[in-house]
Structure formats: structure tokens, C-alpha cells
Amino acid sequence: MMEYLAHSAKEDCPPQSYEAHVKGVFLRAVKYAGEAENYALKCRGQLEDVARRSAILHDLGKLCDQNQTSLHEPSGKNRHLPVNHVDAGSAALIASGSLYSALAVYSRHRGLPDIAAEEARGDTIFRDEHPDVRDRVDHMLQELIRRHQDAVQMDERQPEYPFDGDLPVFFRMMLSCLADADHTDTAVFYSQAPDREEIPQLRANERLAALDQYVLTLGSNDIRSRLRREMYLTCRDANTTGKFTACDSPVGSVKTTAVMAHLLKQAARRKARRVFVILPYTSIIQQSVDVYRKALVLPGENPESVVSELHCRADFQDQDTRYLTSLWRTPVIVTTAVAFFETIASNHPSTLRRLHELPGSVIFVDESHNALPLKLLPLAWRWMNILAKEWSCYWVLASGSLVRFWQLGALREIEIAQPNVSDLVHTSLRTRLMKYEQDRISFYWKPEPLSRDELTAWVQSRPGPRLLIMNTVQSAAVIADDLCRRYGRNSVEHLSTALTPEDRDTVIKRIKARLVDKDDAEWTLVATSCVEAGVDFSFRTGFRELSSLLSLLQAAGRVNRHGAVESAEMWSFSMQDDSMLKTNPALETSREVLRTYFNQNMNIVSVLSTQSLNEELTRDDSCIRTIRSLIDAEDAMQFKTVDEQFEVIDSNTVSAVVDEMLVKAITFGKGDWRQLQRKSVSIRREKIQSWNLKEIAKGVYQWTLRYDSFLGYMHGVLDTEKAKIATLLL
Prior knowledge:
Number of strands: 19
Shape: globular
Strand order of the largest sheet: 5-6-4-7-8-3-9
Oligomer: single chain
Number of helices: 29
Largest sheet: 7 strands, parallel
CATH class of the largest domain: Alpha Beta
CATH superfamily of the largest domain: P-loop containing nucleotide triphosphate hydrolases
Structural class: alpha/beta
Distance between the termini: 87 Å
Radius of gyration: 28 Å
């Protein structure tokens, strides 16, 4: 009798038998589900049950004659199986009343569907949409089941028990277990993943002791250092018992280490599996990772296998490290809000496969006000509550201008969970920290709009080094160019997404070096909001084009950050209409709220953060509608819709490569994705034609206008804009 196969031979690798693959997927899926269920408060074995049933029958359709003939062919001749191999598993499970398991098998390759649309199909729910495929499968189903039983002697076609928790998250979790098990077993067989995962354990108490020793080496005995030390000890020793904790403390108060100490203490008490640190931007991850690797890695450990960074620009020393990181299997994971929350929102198996590693984690959302756009916060907040209540996750929300989102009155009509959120920092310490913050910086307002010449002259007249933040990439480039022309290249630095990641890193290093040179003060950094979160800059004077209160407070965190002067100035201003400057219409509501605060002579303090956001929401009906639409889609289990609409970063962009050598390499199919990330910029899709971009690969373009390391791609854009203005003046 011919041996049944699950995978054909590939290069130097022999074929994998159906029995070996099914049993391998079964063992991994049950293991993943069992580990997650150790922390599940609503599951009574349902996740493991679904994992077992779906794993056993997920490849049933491969046993038909046509597919087996194809799988036995030499490598390279069977790119696609001739007969749909998914529908048979779904059909067998549906027939036995195992709808959850059928959904997992049905979704393994196509992703979680919109459940309402599936239910409308009646008897064909979770089956292939083509009647001829279903008929063919139904005709041979009993023979396929017989062959399956002959091959593996495993049959779990029994009715399921319903799950009484949140179904959308449960369904994502069950697909995660199956998808990861299936993918991992296949990858291990073809030697594309480590067969034996050497995963370091959290060892929370030992890492806390190491962190204590690291912190002892920092600081001096001045007022600021004593406050920071008290902050660290307060956070470390806080005895919180709930699921949520808020850490509202100003910039420079050692949240990076203090909250980590608290998380490790809580992880030991709660027997947590791992620690997540969620940051708003890729650009600020490295500095946190560097601190944690210095402080938390124990003797003999590989730092990258203990503290991993997962984001679009991350590089890895080897394949095993990449594997552990991408699947959330290291003890400490530092990642972006984009990567984290879009994983939960996803309906795609390839993205969801790491989700089962999240239950039983302690999670630090730093700069939480910047983590997500406002329209996405309520749904993310719902997920956070479900993961806390049903999957034993513990959350710390931290910011120098913390928005207590769960208290927003503008969202009363929308069901928002109201958990008990304790404060990590006691009132006395927080009051002293805030007093220090108010002494550190003073806020001022220029009510009359400025021309470009007025702005540059005024900025240049204030004590330096200076930070000037504009609302758009083009406006920042225009003002940087003006300062350069008027006062010389050494008088100005420029930082925005107009620069490639490679050039931004170079600029950041140069800025940090200039900031520590006491003899180098007469210069200005012109930037966008990319400097407002987590970047360890400390300028003498700050200027922020009118935006939101939250942006202003975060910008102020880059001015006199370390209290080097008694009090520093932070100015807000607006600009006159100018054809070269660009406005951001999305900021109009928040601008008006902040303008009102200035006109009423209100003190600009972080406790206004929640109030200001509530007022912005009250004035923005479209945002409320978007929020309600997303929550309704989640309630209806419209997984595909949620995946498409839960978009942290606008996906309507393309990569434009600025490096000529890389352009040539990509053209000839030899481009390196790491180099592509480092040497390209993101351009809005609608600008492709007007800026004459040339497509060199799918979704990848060549930047054809001028680019330099000062203004980035904006150099070419400004040349074009100036030429247009000159033509009009002729």
C-alpha cells in the first residue's frame, strides 16, 4: 500500500508522511492550547479540545488519490494540490457537531471570515463556496475518514462544549494554536525552524535582583536623582492586586526601569510567562532594548534571546533568534503598538499564530496616549479588558500625560469597560514629581500668527539649543531650509520621516553629541512629532506649532528634560497662510481645544490630558461614528472587517528607495529587505504620479527627485514647489 504523504520531497529533504505531520501538529497544538489555558479563567478545556480536533483532521483532504499522486511526484512538480484539501476536514467536523473546530480548519489558509456572512449560508457554513468542490468532498468523505483512521488511528469527531467567554478573542486564540502548530511542524521538518527550542525562562526574581543592582549604578545625590530613586522603589514595591495599574509620572522619572521592576515583581507573584513592553514608535525601541539587555540578562544568556525587539527594522543575529522573537517566545518582548495590537486585530493565520503566547503576560504600555489613534482606543481597550479578565494578563498604562481613557464622558453611549485602575505612584510622590515638572518648564503662547521670516527670527533670538516642532513633514523641511539659508547649515538640524531610517539614526546620533557639547548651543532642531515620545533629547528652549495638548506636553518632555536650568520656555504658535507650508486638517479640532485653554489662561498641566481628549471627542462626530462601527463589527465577529479597519498606520503608502545601488539590486531581483527598510522612505500612494516615481518591484518605487541627508526626499519636493511658484510669478 502506498504511504500517505502530507508534504512532498523538497531539495535534500525526504517527503513527510501524513501520520508524522498529523501527530506532530496534534502534539504542538495541544501543547500551545494547554499552556494558554493554564491562564484562562473562562475555558474549561474548550481551547485544548478545539486544538485537538482541528489538528487531527486539518489535512484530511490530502488523502484523496489526486492529491497523493501529486505529493509523490518529484520536487518542483507539485506547486499546488489539484484538489481542495481543506474542505474535507471542515465537512467531517461539521457533521459531528464540532463547529468551532471546523471554523479553525476552514480559517487555517483563508483567515477568519465574517461570521454573520457564514451563518447566512446555512448548511454550507465553513465549507468551500464552490458547490462542485463540496459535492466532490461529500462523495469521498467516508473513504477519506477510513484512510485517515488507517494512517493515524486518531478520530475525535465528538460534539463540542460551548464557550461562555468572549468568542471573538477565543476564535482568534484557537486559530493561533492550529496555525502555529501546522506552520512550525512543517518548518521543522524542512529544517526552516529549530527542532528544539531553547527558550530562556522569565526567572522574574533573578532578573529583578539584577535590575536592582543596575539601578544602583545610576544617578547622583541631587534632588532629581533622589526623586527618581524613590520612584523606582515605589513602583517596584507597589502591592497591586487588580488587573490594571496606571503610572502617571513626568518625563525623566525612570519609568523604563521603575515600571519594569514592578512588572517583574508582579510576574513572580502571578507566575506570569513573559513581559511585554509596548512603545509607540519604532525609532525609540532601541534605547529601551539597550537598557533592558544591560540590566536583565543573567550570566551565560544570549541577550537577544532574553530581551527581543520585534518591529519592521529589527535585525537578528541568527535564524533561531528571529524565530523566537517573531513568535513572542522570549521572556521580555519589546515591540510597537502597531505590531502588538494589529496582531490581536488580525484575521490572518500568519499574524495570529503568535497570539496564544500572550495569556498570562504582564504588559507595559508606555507613552500610552500615543499608542493608538483615538478612533482605535475603545476597541483596543475592550481587548485589554478581555485579556485581563479571561486570560490573566496584567496591564500597566504609563505616560507623562496619561489619558484616563476609561473615564471619557464622550463615550458614555458606547459600552466601555470601567475596571478598577489603581495608581502605581502614591499621591505624595506624584505631587512632588509634578511640582518638579512645573518648576522645570513654563508654557507660553503667541496668539498672533507668524510669517516664516518672523518665526525664524524669533526662534533664533531665544536661548539655544532649540527644539522647533512643526505639524507636517513639508512645513518642517521648509522651516529647516529657511534657517539654513539665513543662518548657515551648522545652525540647524532636521529630523522627520522625510529621511530614511538610516539617515534618521545618523541625525539622532549627531543631535545627542551636540546636546552634550556645552560650547555648541546656537542651533535649532526642526522636527515633526516623531521626537515627541521616548527620545532622550534635552533642549534649552522649545517651540511647538499649535496642535493638541498631549503633543505639547510630550514636546515639553524634550526641553530641559534633566532640569539643567532653573526653568525653560516652551512656546506654542501658529503660522500665517503660506503656499510652501502644509497644514494637517486632522489636527483642527485638537488645535481649537488647546487654543481655548490658552485664551482662558489655563495652566498647561498633564492632569488636563483626559479633559482635553474628552472635549476633542465631543466636537468630532465622525470619530465617534468610526469607534461605534469598529465595536459593532467586533461584536458581530466580522473578523475580516475588523482586520481591515483596525489600521494603526495608514497603509495607503509605498516605499520609495533613495539609494541608486539598491535600486539596481532590486531591479535585478537581488535586493535585501533589511537594506530596503533602511534606505527607503514612505510616500503616499496618490503622490506616485505627480512626483514621477518609477516602480521597480511590486509596491516598491524609485525616488526620482532630489534626495539628501539634510532635508531627505523633501529637498526634491521643495525644488518642485519653488519652481511652480516661480512659474506663477512670471
